[in-house]
Structure formats: structure tokens, C-alpha cells
Amino acid sequence: MAEPEDGTYLYAITRQLDPAELRGLRGVDGERPRLVEGSGLRAIVGTVDLARFRRPPDRDLGDVEDLRSLEALLRAHHRVVQAVAGTAAVVPLRLGTVYRDDGRVREVLDERRADFEQALSRVTGRTEWGVKVSATPEAFAGDSGVAGDARDPGDAAAEARPAPDAGASDRPGTEYLRRRREDERSRQEGWDRAAAFAEEVHAALAGVAVESRRHSPQDPRLSGQAGWMLLNGAYLVDHGREAGLVAVVDRFDDPDGGVRVELTGPWAPYSFTEAEGGAEEGGHR
Amino acid sequence: MSGLARGVRPTVEPLRSRPVALVDLLDRLLAKGVVVAGEVTLTIADVDLVHVSLRALITSVRRPE
Prior knowledge:
The complex is a heterodimer. Chain A is an alpha+beta fold. Helix content of chain A is 36%, strand content 24%. Chain A has a 4-stranded antiparallel beta sheet, sandwiched between helices. Chain A has a 4-stranded antiparallel beta sheet with strand order 6-7-5-8, covered by helices on one side. In chain A, a hairpin with a 2-residue loop joins strand 2 (34-38) and strand 3. In chain A, helix 6 (172-208) packs antiparallel against helix 8. Chain A is elongated. Chain A starts with 5 loop residues before the first strand and ends in an 18-residue tail after the last strand. Helices cover 37% and strands 3% of the residues of chain B. Chain B has 2 helices and 1 strand. The longest helix of chain B is centred in the C-terminal third of the chain and has 16 residues, at 47-62. The model of chain B is unreliable at 1-9 and 45-49 (pLDDT under 50). Chains A and B meet through strand 1, helix 2, strand 4, helix 4 and strand 5 of A and helix 1 and helix 2 of B.
């Protein structure tokens, strides 16, 4: 059956890195990350036991132990990538990229050198930052205290809404339906205002950034945040322009008004290393 | 040539020491990233499955609170 078998786990690619920067780090299999050099590039790799990563195909990721080890894997991968990103321009590889041995890694460095160089140029001198915008539904309900500059022309429609009709209470059923429709409409309007707000924040952040990208809103069950997640953005920002980013965040952040704008990072440029033009599925050559 | 500038403004410096939320990590690590064809297919590559399962993970991890 399966005998112990090593593989080379690939974390990231960089141009230059002092091996001393890897000292003290532990990788996804508890191993000490190291460098493989070739074609003018350096790959940050680790020797891993393949058996540890291969799951029998008939087993589901159902039990908590598996899931915990999955989180450990994510965090270990991130720790290595992030440590390197703190000292050099780096292109993170997709989680779980593993080769038979170092020789194969060198071949890949050679075969894909142009792609890696291009990806490195894209992120050199830049850092990824994350900005998450969330709000309580009340923050955008009606005309009261909306945060920042997020005024939206939709308010005119809200003002044109007919005043409650005192006579309607003669017919409770009709009144109920009318109110429900009204609630739905004002909820929709609140949502529209919130969405417009998110667009405005994103545009302001994108104005500071070299590149930007929106991740899907986070599942509240994962984020633990109640309310609406309006924006889950990633921004690639030139070094030295961080203050501009922070200024935008501060301008829109309004905890008292129920709007939270949160900055995360610095991140290795995870969100900006996908090959452009959809080449990422390997159809590039 | 440095990646994350060592001399980032003081305004963002405190962020470095903050723990990274797993959910933020997921957004990034499960995004495609640079894809080169690894020779050994890890089950982790099944991103959808990972996403679904992590909900269960978070729920189970949170429960003791």
C-alpha cells in the first residue's frame, strides 16, 4: 500500500530572498521552508509527506478533526507566504500546489518564467489591503442618519410616499397588506441606498489603488458579523499611498450610524496574481 | 525591492499585529492565485467543498463560546 512519499510543496515565487528570512518558520507539514532557485527566480518550498495531504476519495470533509486540520493548513500556508511578503515582492501560489521533487519545481520555474516575471512586476512595490463594509439594515432605512456622503437621489421617491391614511384602519386586512408592501418597498429602498454607498466607497478606494477587485460578500456564519456585508474589496496599493487608503476608510466609517468600514492587511498579493485574460486554467500557451 | 514596505505609515502599523480572521484568509487563499499545474492533486483543490465544510468548522469552533 502507500509507502512514505515526499513531495515539494510550493508556497510562493520571488526574485530574491535571503534564506535567513525563512529561519524559524514552519510550513504546512511542520517542515522548514527553504528555497529552490532556477531561471533567475526563487521558489519558496517545503518538503511534505504526501500521504498526509491525500485524502481517500471516499471520505468526506465531514468531521471536525479534518476541518480543524484544514484550518491549520490554511494558516500555515499563509504564515509562510506572509513572512516572505514582509521582505520581498512575492507571488503566492495557489494553496496546495505540490510537485514530485525539487527538480520538477525548477522545470516549472523555467517553463513559466515569463508568467512569474509578469506577475512579480505587477505586485512589486505594492501591497494588498482589504476593506470590508458592513451595515445594519437600519443604517440605510428611511431618511435618518446615513453615513458619510452616501446621499442618494432615491430619497425623492421616499418623500413622495403617501402619508398613512387614517381611514384605512376600518379595514384591518387591507391596512396590513398595505403596510407590508410599504415595508418591503422601504426595505428595497434601503438596500438600494446601501448598495449605492458600497459603490461609492469602492470607487474611492479604487481611486487610491493601482488595481482593485471585489470578493464575494462573506457569509455571516463565517464572519460572525450580523447585518449586511456591502463590500468585500481587495486593493493593490503602491507603497507610500497607504495614508490615502486610510483616509478613505476613515471618511466612510461611521460606527454610530451603523456603518462599519474595516481595513485589513497588509496582505501578500493573493487577490492580484491570477493570470490576466483567464489564462489561469492553464490554457495560456 | 521590498514587498510589504517596512516603513509603512504608523496609521496602518497596528494592523500587522492583529490576528487574521479565518474568513478573510479564505477569501484570499481560495481565490485562484497563480495556478501552475501541480503534479499531486490535493483534495484541498476542491474549493467548493472546502467552502461548504468550513461553515461547519466555524460553527463547531464557535460553539464553546
